[in-house]
Amino acid sequence: MFLFQHMDSIRDFTPIAYKELPDHIPANLNPTFELRPYQEDAFRNFITFYESDKRPNPTQVLFHMATGSGKTLIMAGLIIYLYKLGYRNFLFFVNLDNIVKKTKDNFLNTASAKYLFAEEIVIDGERIRVNEVSNFQGSNPDAINICFTTTQGLHMDMWFPKENSPSFDDFLEQKTVLIADEAHHLNVDTRRGRVDATDSLRQNWETTVRRIFESNRDNVLLEFTATCDLQNPFILGEYENKIIFNYPLSRFREEKYSKQVRAIRADIEHRDRILQALMFSQYRLKVFQDHQLSIKPVVLLKARTIAESKRVEQTFYEMIQTLQGATLESVVNNSPLAEVKQMAEYYASKGIGYDELALELREEFSSDHCISVNDDKEADARQLILNSLESRDNPYRLIFEVKKLDEGWDVLNLFDIVRLYETRDAKNGKPGQTTIAEAQLIGRGARYCPFIIEEADEKYKRKYDNDIKNPLRVCEELYYHCQYDSRYIDELNKALIATGIMPEKQTEISYEIKEEFRSHEIYEQGIVFLNDRIVKSRSDIVELLPSIRNKEYFVSVNTGKATMDTMMMNTHTNTTVKTYQYRTTIGQIATYNYSLVHRAIRQVNVFKFNILRGYFPNLKSTREFIVNEAYLSNVKILIESRDEVPTPKTLFEACVSVFIKIGSEISTIKETYEGTTVFRDKKFREVFRSKTLHITDPHGEGEGISQNAPTIRPEWKINLADADWFVFNDNFGTSEEKAFVAFFASYVEQLKKTYEQVYLVRNERQLVLYSFDSGERFEPDYLLILLRQKSSGYEQYQIFVEPKGNHLIAQDKWKEEFLLQIKERGIPQKTFADDKEYYVWGLPFFNHQCKNNFSSAIDQVMNGQE
Questions:
Q1: Whether the bond into 58 is cis, omega within 30 of 0
Q2: Which contacts qualify for 490-494: CB closer than 8 Å, 24 or more apart?
Q3: Are strands 89-94 and 636-641 parallel, antiparallel or unpaired?
Q4: Is residue 285 within 8 Å of residue 296, measured between CB atoms?
């Protein structure tokens, strides 16, 4: 079992032992870089391990984290944590000098946009300085002293000492934190299975670092890499008990922290390939500007050799100086790609002709706005410029490069990479080193460029995965422009899948609004209603968020379950232990033994009453928070243990586990909101549009599979293209959603006896509601629109429907409560008067295994009962 898996077990099964994130870590980091959930987990894993009695001395751990996931921020936070524990000397080393320069700027330059620490570092009431030192002989005992060096430089200094450089003697009497970036380069001996603790004569990077590390039992070695070769049995054996946190690129992508990567392969000249990329770059610039965003997209031209790159640079300047509109028009007209046509349509819609576009490109990509990093001298001199490409005062739009940026480059606004060579180096169907290096570069470019359009947007995550036709979608994509060679793309895809930046299986589906529906009045002139979210005064907060309060929390306490794994052979031997499940609530446990619950809640820092009152100012006491139904009393717990009736000790541990989870959610609350009871109107055609989505690994009857697919059970299978009541061409929702649509189909004819028009609309994250009491975002899966004629005009009913699988009913109960409040509290408000009366309703959850409540509600709708 890996070390990080042990940490996961502690978090899940003995949460009282899983350490909280100390306040002094985020308080002393740059507030611009808000900690992400996985980064908090990385800190908590390390702290839990470091403060345990099982930690070896000296201590070595590896953070195995994806490119772009914020490893350097983790380093800064760990420096803060370890300083408080008495460490003053920090040795940072990495294989490349350009990464040293970049990291030094991030740690020391307070004027840098990427400076990692807070403006003032304050620990235990004292202001702490960060000093750069060349050795630790005279280091300041009241400061953070950091020595920056390359791995090669450190090795030479140790074996061939010179004045003012660190030496082995520096590390004998003073405990030191060693921080190794791109640490996979250290494993010179390990990868060959040549590690020998008694061999002190062999001199290489790994033995040098090991000797420094082992010179003092209080030393700490923090290793960071995105590419630990765990397929190598020697590496696996060495690091299985050292990988403290694992966050692969695949998870980074799945959690939407990266751009989507798309390859544009075309059988065209290199000149046209470059021009196509420049036009896309300028297109993105203008889309960003349309939304008042000051983001400058960057293009990278990648050559195979330095000589070729210099020729490309010279040719590029000659081409750009004489660029004419007719050349650009020819590139567009000769491309069959829909994305190129979409780009051209955008320019046309803005009144930008090809001559005007050529003028813009001549200015934007002139030599003043291009930079080369073709050799060591250029890369070193320009490292800080390359590390600040996102800055408004950085003028560069294009980079000429061979391989200097494959490692250690921090860039967010790279959107186009142009490959200017056609060679392949695969062997036996496996990607070669060149292709793997290209995949690594693509991984660097795939870092998400953060922005916000709507207030509720998550800044650092992709927003348009389910809205591919949204103009801003192109601003969440990295384009890789290369040759029209399917074998090369296959090899690159294998490399990208191996790194995790691309999913293994992905299918494109389209929700198309039917042409016949587009001709109806409701599409052209009809309106739908939605409410808004507004900030709620803290003085009005009188309850815990329903999404937290209504969950059922599962806790496993001391079950005794065990498994024996035979490593490297993928075999497992399980032992069977009889366990029992017991359902209860916090309120019921408090009635049985209030002091037990009170003692458990005091284990979590956020529940200290003075802190709790900051979140819930109307609270009178901790007792009220525990026993009041508006707060914790009705919180449900499902306990699995070896006791048929849990013992007090088991109940205590279960309460602590639940309080840690709830406390973690409470501590993320920055502002509290409420949803308006007034529902404003919006044109139907402005809300609901045809939409294209990418679905990863669709299968069975689940998401991404057509309602008319062969895999769908007969009672759910419908050809919705022929259903005049279904607005879109098909339904690709979950199995529960398909069950609902099939159920609804059986009611359509009866509904048409009461209503002249019946339409069911799939809501693919296009219409958003906010719960009345807590302002929580909710996108009901379906909208039912019913119209019937009255003597004075029409009545229009807008009814929200949410199918819900068994596994989600309990935790999403707040959504059902909100739906059932809409009929009484929702007030549709028209902008312009017409002859219609409007009503907004919500129905109970639909669940195909238990649909009594839903059936009763739909019967009332069918009979026209208000």
A1: yes
A2: 491/424, 491/426, 491/431, 491/432, 491/435, 492/263, 492/431, 492/435, 492/438, 492/439, 494/430, 494/431
A3: unpaired
A4: yes
CA distance 561 to 260: 41
- The DSSP result for 587-604, as a single string, is HHHHHH-HHHHHHHHTTS
Three-state secondary-structure class, residue 691: strand
Task: Compute the distance between CA of residue 857 and CA of residue 866 in angstroms, rounded to an integer.
Answer: 11
pTM score, whole prediction: 0.68
Distance, in Å, from the CA atom of 844 to the CA atom of 226, rounded to the nearest integer, reads: 46
Inter-residue contact 205 to 46 (CB < 8 Å): no
pLDDT class of 561 with cuts at 50, 70, 90 = very low
Residue 404 has a pLDDT of 66
Whole-number mean pLDDT of the chain? 87
Quick one: which of 73, 36, 42, 68 has its CA closest to 448? 68
Kindly tell me if the per-residue pLDDT of 723 is higher than 70: yes
Q: Is the pLDDT of residue 201 over 70?
A: no
Number of Cβ atoms within 10 Å of the Cβ of 569: 7
Among residues 117, 7, 108, 8, which one has the least CA distance to residue 55?
7
Whole-number Å distance between alpha carbons of 729 and 721:
5
Decide: 681 and 828 in contact? Cβ < 8 Å.
Answer: yes
Query: For residues 422 and 454, is the Cβ–Cβ distance under 8 A?
Result: no
- Mean pLDDT of all residues in 735-762: 94
Q: How confident is the model at residue 206 (pLDDT cuts 50, 70, 90)?
A: confident
Which tens digit of pLDDT belongs to each residue from 349-395? 999 999 999 999 999 999 999 999 876 666 666 777 887 888 888 99
The helix (run of H) or strand (run of E) holding residue 26 is helix 24-27
DSSP string across 408-437:
S---S-EEEEEE-------BTTB--HHHHH
589-616 tens-digit pLDDT:
999 999 999 999 998 888 989 889 888 9
* Nearest one of 226, 220, 210 to 168, comparing CA atoms: 210
Within 8 A by CB and 6+ apart from 446, the residues are 68, 253, 258, 259, 261, 478, 501
Q: 821, 793 in Cβ contact below 8 A?
A: no
> 550: closest CA among 625, 662, 442?
662
- The residue written with tokens 């790609």 in the block is 337
Neighbours of 151 (CB within 10 A): 22
